[in-house]
Amino acid sequence: MSGEVLLAAQGVAKHFGGVKALQDVSLTIRRGEVYGLIGPNGAGKTTFFNCMTGLYVADGGSFQFDGARLAAHAPEQVARCGIARTFQNIRLFGNMTALENVMIGRHVRTRAGVFGAMLQTRATRDEEAAIRQRAIELLHYVRIEERADDLAKNLSYGDQRRLEIARALATEPKLLCLDEPAAGMNATETAELRELIDGIRKDGTTILLIEHDVKLVMGLCDRVAVLDYGKLIIEDVPAVVQKDQRVIEAYLGA
Amino acid sequence: MNNWLSPRSFVGILLITAALVALPFILGMGGGQAWVRIVNFAILYVFLALGLNIVVGFAGLLDLGYIAFYAVGAYTWALLASPHFGLHFPVWVILPIGAVLACFFGVILGSPTLKLRGDYLAIVTLGFGEIVRIFLNNLNAPVNITNGPQGITLIDPVSIGGFRFSGTSEILGLTLTGPQKYYFLLVALAILVIIINLRLQHSRIGRAWQAIREDEIAAKAVGINTRNIKLLAFAMGASFGGIAGGIFSAMQGFVSPESFSLIESIMVLAMVVLGGMGHIPGVILGAVLLSVLPEALRYGVGPIQMALFGKMLIDPESLRMLVFGLALVLVMRFKPAGIWPSPERKRELTEKSGVKA
Prior knowledge:
The complex is a heterodimer of chains A (about 250) and B (about 350).
Chain A: E1 5-16, E2 19-30, E3 34-38, H1 45-52, E4 60-65, E5 68-69, H2 75-81, E6 83-85, H3 98-105, H4 114-119, H5 122-141, H6 157-170, E7 175-179, H7 187-202, E8 206-210, H8 214-220, E9 223-228, E10 231-236, H9 238-243, H10 245-252
Parallel strand pairs in A: 3-8, 3-9, 6-7, 7-8
Antiparallel strand pairs in A: 1-2, 1-4, 4-5, 9-10
Helix pairs in contact in A: 3-5, 3-6, 5-6
Chain B: H1 7-27, H2 34-58, H3 67-80, E1 81-82, E2 87-88, H4 91-110, H5 118-138, E3 159-160, E4 163-164, E5 169-171, E6 174-176, H6 178-201, H7 204-214, H8 216-221, H9 226-252, H10 262-276, H11 280-309, H12 316-334, H13 343-350
Antiparallel strand pairs in B: 1-2, 3-4, 5-6
Helix pairs in contact in B: 1-6, 2-6, 2-7, 2-9, 2-10, 2-11, 3-4, 3-5, 3-9, 4-9, 7-9, 10-11, 11-12
């Protein structure tokens, strides 16, 4: 199952004015694995994420995904290709219900247009029913089905994280990118999240995990990459990364 | 969606139908048609407010130049069905042309503003609305297209298969005046427009509009092509404006640029906001109230002053707008989400705490 390269980043660079946020970052994510990306605050983890998902345009380098080059600066096309993401500071559609949030995730895999909606053609109605059905299943999957009709912004913090994951899964991603999903969670919530991520991996979705919680990353990931000051310092299995001198220095300060 | 055939909703629909059918006859009983005309305009404003609601209420794009699309529709009808160019096309040719042309203008307005939001978007759309009006005012030289500030007169009324909607005629033993006939045409169209709006709101496209309103970056990240979906909102909103404009033109028999001033855009926006942004029944209520209230005050403030003070203290015309303005302020103070907000929005405003931990 694993082994084949799903995503390859080559020499990715990004700077903001004089600040070099990313320098020559190359890494590969294999199909079926959970890949951890860690590093101290400001190391460039989220910047890397944003370059990959098209929110930023990288100043150098490229991304190969599933055998094709990812288009720069086109987040909607990146999503279409099969990369879904969550945000570090949760970004839900707050004034819409949890169910509607997940239904929007189906947008990219469905096609009904204005005229279909106006005429309520059979195809449109069937598609709409399928969207709703799938959204309910996904709410079930992340275990917040009883909050389906609540506004997203009225959900508890942990449920909002789960809802964001459900919305991302609705786009049928090949690669699910989670940006600090455990941030602000207590021990119980983190354990539940870990279970959820494990389940998603078992169901066949590759996961890229940005995380601060080193314990979570080491326990969950198949391979880990460490960024420090915008540079990749190591990419290996957790056991090796944990013992690496450069990593220890980066985290504890040299 | 709901159970249409349950006895209770059946009785409700029957009562509403009866009221809608009886209304023009009750209003016309005194012999005058002024109130029927006022109601007709209220329905036109319902079209406009529902169109603008797509742009402002669903997609969250503040548009202060919406009346320009109404103008495009009105002038399309005026030019294609009047002695001005000697053209007299039938309704099923002109209305679609008007809608498509307004749609086109919607895209023209939309494309340069794709990256703008909020205040900045409002300024650009405001400018667009004024440009259209000024063009209409000045396109009488060197080639006379719009007849400038004099406007276009003797515009054909709506006629379907030889049946004209102007003038009095007898149908099934009932004498119907022009405005009464237009009333029934407008009600039929209004029902169609409302159904289309409801369907759009609960569709894949409608959800995408709302996603853009809520968080554009998240919308992009889940794969919504925000550029196309925004343009679609402008285009759809504009086409409703275009259709309303065409009927306005036919009903009045006369159009001139002064009908399409900035204050009209603001009024339509006020209808949407005051009624309950994004909530279709609320927007309809807002449109009806804001179009009928000034007229009711026109007839009301004079007699009330006479009754209270025995003489006219304040000119009824200025008092009317004063009361109207005050009413707007009070509604916004006590009902910030609009008179009839969507159930979700209402819940949110009552639940002050927001997050349920």
